[in-house]
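Appendix C: a fully annotated inverse folding record. The material below is reproduced so that readers can follow the format used throughout the book. The structure is listed first as tokens, followed by the designed sequence.
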């Protein structure tokens, strides 16, 4: 469904992605791992067409998104939904209006039908009572759940999650992880960007580790845990790495 081919991207004279190539299918359960600043969230921005690579191609359903007419790209991108790190809800709209936003914008359904979908998706994430509240009245975990409901309401094939458990307490993080699993069980592909290993191991079938803008590992949990690659060992066991550095200094 998505393919990045030899993608290079620099910002402020700093290389962020360096010759990155990856494929994502419509039924993917991929987790992109890495330390802060290695380019994880950048990959999502490139997939969505928000950032254009300096070199390389970004293909959606086989076509370079930057060669498509804007209207056609917008239409094809409807197969994707994204849950941003902060939820990215519209502060001036109620939770229900946020969840139904793409449906209202498309103008293809009657308001009553949209309200039915909105209530159904809010019920799925346990927020049916929050339909008339505003984002400012929600906790961080509730905003993430509302953002997931909005993604589901658009009925995409693939949902992109940017640091879905960042800033949440353990209980809220667990609930978000279970919602991502539920999305997968409903037939949605997922790409999750995170540095949270508990989240990664719960929701990912394929794990990818990014380091210095390059993919240094790709495989399942068992392969990652048994890997002897220094970048993988450092990511899985940071305390040991820090202690080793301390003894050498």
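Designed amino acids, in order:
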């Amino acid at each position: 469904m998505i393919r990045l081919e030899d993608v290079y991207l620099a910002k402020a004279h700093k290389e962020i992605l360096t010759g990155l190539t990856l494929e994502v299918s419509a039924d993917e359960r991929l987790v992109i791992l890495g330390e802060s600043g290695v380019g994880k969230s950048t990959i999502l921005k490139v997939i969505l067409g928000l950032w254009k690579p300096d070199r390389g191609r970004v293909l959606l359903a086989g076509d370079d998104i930057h060669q498509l007419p804007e209207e056609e790209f917008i239409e094809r991108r409807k197969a994707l939904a994204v849950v941003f790190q902060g939820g990215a809800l519209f502060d001036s709209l109620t939770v229900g209006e946020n969840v139904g936003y793409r449906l209202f914008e498309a103008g293809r359904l009657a308001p009553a039908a949209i309200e039915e979908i909105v209530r159904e998706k809010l019920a799925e994430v346990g927020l049916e009572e929050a339909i008339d509240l505003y984002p400012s009245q929600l906790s961080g975990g509730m905003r993430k759940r509302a953002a997931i409901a909005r993604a589901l309401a658009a009925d995409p094939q693939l949902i992109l999650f940017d640091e879905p458990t960042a800033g949440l307490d353990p209980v809220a993080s667990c609930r978000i992880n279970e919602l991502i699993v539920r999305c997968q069980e409903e037939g949605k592909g997922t790409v999750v960007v995170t540095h949270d290993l508990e989240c990664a191991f719960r929701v990912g079938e394929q794990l990818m580790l990014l380091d210095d803008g390059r993919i240094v590992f790709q495989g399942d949990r068992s392969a990652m845990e048994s890997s002897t690659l220094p970048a993988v060992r450092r990511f899985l066991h940071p305390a040991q790495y820090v202690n080793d550095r301390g003894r050498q200094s």
